[in-house]
Records
---
Amino acid sequence: MATHFGKEGVVKAGGTGIGELTGYTLETTADVVEDTQLSDSTKTFVAGRTSFSGTLEMSYDETDSPQQTLTAGTSISFVLGPEGDGSGDEIFSGSGIVTGMSVNVGLDAITTRSVTFQGTGALTRGTA
């Protein structure tokens, strides 16, 4: 069984790596539609459409061009690599819309940026 450190992960937006990345989440979901018939004694369901969304966490860096493009309403193409982006590493790629961006400032803390996105179209699972 393979395990990976989070430090191996990469995220690219528009083909360029996002600097100061500290973590990310990718969530996939599927609609479930009930197809129970009147004569059935238990409910049954079928899988419907799928979707995906995510969150990117990073240390704030105003000089990092990819960070600066991640503003609410912006369309992005991305690659998420949980184990990196070397030859043979698993990656997820797709397109999405930035739904939110927040800058978080705290006393005696590193200033961070959080970005949320909603996928549009299919999420592709492949290898680098």
---
Amino acid sequence: MSKYFIFIPNLLSIIRIYLMYPLLTFISEENYLFALYIFIIAAATDGLDGYLARVMNWQTDLGKILDPIADKVLLIGTILILWMNAYIPIFVLVVFVIRDFIIIMGAAFHMTVYETAAPNPNIFGKITTFVHIGYLAAVFIDIIFGLNLTNFMIDFSVALITLISLFLYGLNWFKLTAKLHRE
């Protein structure tokens, strides 16, 4: 019976992508409270789709590609518009974008050249996504309530964690490339 619901994680990823329109609209209208609500809902769909896919064994090939794309759309779209409104420094935006671009290109390379399945995220990648979501939520809370949760050290720490994640992904890819090349 539960196999009839295998589409739910993919539906949640699609909903996350569609939530970007109201999220970006609320930010552009400077309605940050509603933007935070939408962001929290979108972030919750990220956790829920992964949980359902693993626990209920509802993993699909589409979901392995759709979920990371939805994550990147959510995070990059949000950080870009917050940067455009001068709430996030340029170096954080650049690190976020470069990391995701390199990860996408690396995954595409491996899937194409070595004809492998979509790569599974590593634990540090999941931690990094969690840190990004927390960071962006803190930026929204700062804007709304003026609590000064984010500062240069927080920005720098998030950028550093992002770069460490990129390094670890790169290390895994080089190991996988060497292994596949030997075969």
---
Amino acid sequence: MTTKPETKFWRRIKNKFTKITFIRIEAVTPTGLPDLNGLFLDTEKRPHEFWVELKVSSGNRVRLSPGQISWHMNRFKLGGKSFIMVTPLEQRGISVYSGGRSLNLASQGLTLDPCAFFPEPCVFSNLESWFMNHVP
């Protein structure tokens, strides 16, 4: 059985975070629910939660289903935090996009400027810090 690219992406990142706990959602889920739920405690021990969709792109195209776009856009409208983390098949870095830009990402692909970009070799502590600084 062939391993899906997003599963390989997950395996690559899952043990790289020391302050954020990610839970991978693998069961049959509602349409559009992202791959990861992230949770961390700030310095005052207050919890902060967010969601991450993992995508592996081929060329500049980022495939998002209508359900995924709708989920991210609704979450954004309600003030929730969600992100789409994209790496090309060639692993040329990791781009992070706000879930509120999911429709633009689906139409423009990797030509859309990301909120953050982490080149290879990825310094995962910088990626973790970025998430922690961008989730209220």
---
Amino acid sequence: MELYVWGTGCAAGDLTDRGLTPEKITAFVDSSPNAAEFLGRPVLHPEALRDMEEGLILVASRHTEEIARQAAGLGIREDRLLFLKNNWEAKDRNSAYAAAEGLLPPEQIEALRRAPHLVREPLCISNSPLTQRDLENDYVRLRTLELLCRELDAVPGAAAELGVYRGAFAACINALLPERRLYLFDSFEGFAEAEAADQAAGLVEAHRNTDEARVLSLLPHPERAVIRKGFFPETARGLEEERFALVSLDADLEESTLQGLRWFWPRLSPGGYLLLHDWDNPRLPGVKRALKRYEEELRRRLPAVPLCDVCGTLVLTRGDDPK
């Protein structure tokens, strides 16, 4: 039986790192591929699978509803698809919207019509710049980011992300803080070879699968972004006097994370936030080790709150202590 994997990102890389060898995969599928091959296998456009009747497609992407619609349009039967992420569907129980017209305010009916969530929307959320597609990735992480950004009005400084990858989280920061300069630090070519030497092949290959043009195309306010391409902290030269209100630290590996903490924490404005992604991710234990090492250097614990998001983000916040 032919086996296809729809997606060429981290989820696809993780799939191969956890036991599905690339040799068993006929091809990967991607609507916007960055390369003709991924992990040594060809990358096909979805159109190549039109009217597929045999074989199996493993959907390794968070955009499940979008891919389901695309597959249906290509004549691919549902029993040919196996969704590895978001493999559930929250259905709207209501059918009496027409009867409610004239009885309930239009805005209340519209709120009920919105796509339901297993996690209910916070009452304080309205007129959000985040889209449904944004929230598919990690609802808790993204809504927390939104609430944190609302607390930054009186906090000076730029925003930054170290470890941009394909730019999904950077695009949300850019949408939520449209007036702030956004520094984006990434090699856009993957991890440094020395640090990635002992990492799983799928993880390493997935992080090569990006480029800065793709990231900029996702940003709603690209004019506010400053790309710092290369390996950190060399790419931060000249910014020593900059201060930051919000930092996303998503470097995945121990040494890069430690370098990020050493550089950004002293430059975080009082009242600012540093989001340490993958802090409680069992597949990337180096992130938690890096924080432990940094706190040992400081000889104190940093004030922080863990999130129950997918990859275990830790939110660190800066008080008035200049150290």
